[in-house]
Design brief:
7 helices, 9-stranded mixed β-sheet, disordered N terminus, globular, two-stranded antiparallel ribbon, alpha/beta
Length: 259
């Protein structure tokens, strides 16, 4: 692990606590590898651990991906693999284990085998949003939607107009929660900006945020600054996007599947 990156993430973690206050939805956009996901995961895992009461987690995590294929257990565990679970849980647990899309705090027993302890959340696919209706998720409080800005600019049919908010409604029902939408600055043409009324969101300066208020809901868009570290592995327009967080300057319009 790069020492500089650890320091950068700790700085972002401190800032994240202030940034995530007083909003219902928090868009985190920026360059790849600048700690957006790390800071968010660290924050919600701490809340989940601190909420454990009599063996049950009262502030569980809902983890959303666009496609069901992204919700395989084999892909979910690596998502949490960079988390210092022992540090977060004060040594109570040693790792995260995923079984049938359910996410657990776990520990290694004397034989080195992983033992699942407390369920701290589960994964949802946006493409399968219809299948979760009528189900109850009473303990989920924090929701993370990764890759909200599609790399190929292809979005699900009625994803933004119907599926996304319907899934949030299914998970939270009438409860308040916190929704984190994490995306890389891949395209200025993001249908979520238009549907949510986030005027000029693509023009927010780096390391700044802007609030959008709608009736009882506050959406905050924060453009996370890139790290100063550069591996030297990228060049051209891709390098500007990957390392500097600039939007890709390619004229590809967002597309939705025909039906």
């Amino acid at each position: 692990t790069i020492p500089f990156y650890i320091g950068f993430v700790r700085e972002l973690n401190k800032k994240a606590k202030a940034i995530e206050k007083d909003c219902d939805y928090l868009f985190l956009i920026g360059a790849r590898g600048n700690g957006k996901s790390y800071a968010t995961k660290s924050h919600v895992l701490k809340q989940a651990f601190e909420s454990i009461n009599k063996g049950k987690c009262e502030k569980q995590i809902g983890y959303i991906r666009r496609y069901d294929l992204d919700c395989k257990d084999s892909l979910l565990e690596p998502y949490f693999a960079d988390m210092p679970i022992q540090e977060i849980t004060n040594g109570t647990y040693t790792c995260i284990s995923v079984y049938r899309k359910k996410i657990y705090f776990a520990h290694h027993n004397s034989d080195g085998k992983i033992v699942r302890d407390v369920c701290l959340g589960q994964c949802f696919s946006l493409s399968g949003a219809e299948h979760y209706k009528s189900l109850m998720f009473p303990n989920i409080f924090n929701i993370i939607f990764e890759e909200v800005i599609a790399q190929d600019n292809n979005y699900l049919y009625k994803e933004v107009t119907i599926k996304f908010q319907q899934l949030i409604s299914t998970i939270l029902r009438n409860r308040k929660g916190k929704v984190y939408l994490i995306g890389n600055t891949l395209s200025r043409i993001c249908p979520y900006y238009g549907e949510f009324g986030l005027a000029n969101a693509e023009s927010i300066p780096i390391d700044s945020y802007k609030d959008y208020k709608f009736e009882h809901t506050t959406i905050r868009v924060y453009r996370v600054k890139p790290t100063d570290y550069n591996s030297g592995m990228f060049w051209g327009n891709s390098a500007k996007n990957i390392t500097d967080g600039e939007y890709i300057k390619i004229g590809i319009a967002a597309s939705l599947p025909n039906r």
